[in-house]
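re: ur question from earlier - yeah i can do the single chain one, its not a big deal. heres the input i used so u can compare w yours
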Amino acid sequence: MKRVLLLPLFALLLSCGGTTSKYEKLIADVVQTDKGVKIDLNFKADKLEEIRQVSIADSIKIITDSFNAEKDKQLASLDKTISVFNANIEKAKAASRPSQVMIDSYQSSIDKTNKQIDALRKSIPEGLAKYENRDANDILVIVVRCTYTIDEAIANKRATETFDFFLSPDGTICYSQKRVK
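and the output i got, formated as tokens:
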């Protein structure tokens, strides 16, 4: 009976170790490859952990939040522009000799800016079409944090670094890496 209970547990432990070693091998290859040339830097993973999985829903939120933040900045700038034109209209009207040409010019600029604001408010993020008809729970990227030690060729000493690696869902491709501060 104990063997029956321990067998699935043993299989689970082996499968978990397999994912870590797959990540470790890929990361070691990425770290030790420079412009397509593999260099032996005596790579040793000190700590390796999967810190996040980015799903389609996460990606949509990232794109949308980034788009909205940029849109808000642009709207604030356009609102400030309208305020300046309105102030200029008031100055032109208060002048000893009001210039209707200048007032009309400022009003024309306000009208153009308001059209830009309307268009910007109606705009939607680009790039979301690629997610249509896909399950929002599909994983796009796995983020793995790795602290590793390598031999530095120039300094002739061991160096320890920590990077986040952005990997394909199956863990076979490294899209990018980012140093952790």
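DSSP finds three helices and six strands in the chain. not sure if urs matches, ping me
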